[in-house]
Amino acid sequence: MKIFKYIPKVVFILAVLVASSCKESLTEINENPNGVDPNTANPNLLMPTVMTGVGTQYLKLGYGRIAGVVQHTQEDAWKDGFNDYNWTEEDDEWKAWYGFLRNNDLLYKRSVAMGFTFHQGVALTMKAFIFGTITDLWGDAPYTNALKGDQGEMLPAFDSQEVIYKGIIEDLKQASSLFATADVSTYAPGYDVFYNGDKLKWQKFANSLLLRYYMRVSSKLPDVAKAGIEQIYTSGIYLKEASDDAVMDYIGAASGDSWPTAIAFDVSQSNWRRRRPAAALLNTMAASNDPRMKVWFQPVHVRWVSDATLKTGMDEFIRKDGVIQNGVKSLTEQELREQITAGRKFTRHFNPALYKPTRAELFNGPLNTGEYVGIPAGMIDPTYYNENPTTGQQVQNQHASQLSYAYQNSKGGFLKARLASAAETAFILAEAAQKGWAAGGAEAHYNNGIKQSLQTWGVADQFDAYVKAVAYKGTLAQIMEQKWIASWTASTEAWFDYRRTALPALAPGLAPASRALPLRFIYSNNEMNNNGSNVRSAIDKLEETNFSGPRKKNSQWSKPWLVQGTGKPW
């Protein structure tokens, strides 16, 4: 599962194919001398293009602004789209996902033409994943007549979410059947960047996606969901161990194939530095001494200390090992990192009886004295949080936690795009069992979900202590809270879960334009301009809400079919 590891070989083979496909005579017209003939493309060469594109884009959402929606993280500056859901039309996102579908469609067609059953299963699984992401993000979308431009279908109609989800389920069933008997002798080692040709793991991935989408439609199609989940559970073929997770590693050679906050391609370290743990997540983890907290986040560099003997409301300057550093209100990130690594301890004292907020309209206290401190959701100006002395565009809050330094790296370790996991699967089964479906015991699945997540992040040895702190008491809220935590860096799943369950009970702060979390993406301007009548038909089927605002139905706060009539999340 080493991504891009084999890309040099891929590039070489592609070059050979390109060279061999060119005519000797360069006077031929209507031929692209640098192209690969779609009629002779090798499915092995197409697979990594699809997989790496999807993995990279999915991670950008789950580690990016969707993490802001579900309050895994918040950003200190340039935060409108991240913290406040100030979104516009999704042209680039829409183009990206449909671009992946075009490449994947070629993969499928060539696999069928060549009789490559394993590759057909891969293509069907990826088709389901991509279409699933599209309909999850927007709602109705081109599906049945999508990808038929060569047949003259230039303005495809939008299918309903119900049609799309049912189609996804059928594709995944077919993929699972193909993997059960697939001939893998046609697979060239190195080109499958998820599982390197392991057809059983692919079948587990496909079946785990079936569990995901069955649960996704459980409020609208409960009988379909119940029967489907029970069948997959009975089969026993689904992701059970963290080592089987569908993940993509990064090569780290350039910004496009590196972890999004890699500082190798961001000299100012701004992308990493501006992103902070959100208070909702961090406070939940701190309350139960969650061992993943120390893997993902750092303690504050300068901790507040309550001191009733202090003659003023708060120290003006920081203290190093208890000694006031006169004239020093703050240090740079690099200085703090070096000195803390060397064993120095930095604090500021305050007298709770005398303390008054410096800018009460932006931060009204109280001061957070915790070792780990997250940023509350939707602050008007999060740089002021916790009496940060370096506010505004300086964005270096010494009194709030930062992400682990590991997230400055370009690759390696736990820097993986995770498309599906054993932890997610276990929590889906826990929810199914909690509903009374024949899917085993809810508590056993709940505990296993926690175990697999701790395994993923290298802290499985602390399972016994942690599971006692969050012992299952039979509530859906517990299942969804632990699933929400476990979706770290894959927070799109937490968003879609929140949308159908209203759990965890997240609330926006004061800055967002609407007093509710968003539910969907806004249809692409490009699609509106070029396929207007079909887009308008899809928009008409959205349910406008009290939060939809001036965009009316085509708003991030309008309800798609999936949650219409459910009373969720609000």
From TrEMBL:
It comes from the Bacteria. Keywords: Signal. The keyword Signal applies. InterPro entries: SusD-like_2, TPR-like_helical_dom_sf. SUPFAM superfamilies: TPR-like (SSF48452). Gene3D superfamilies: 1.25.40.390. Residues 1-24 form the signal peptide. This is Starch-binding associating with outer membrane.
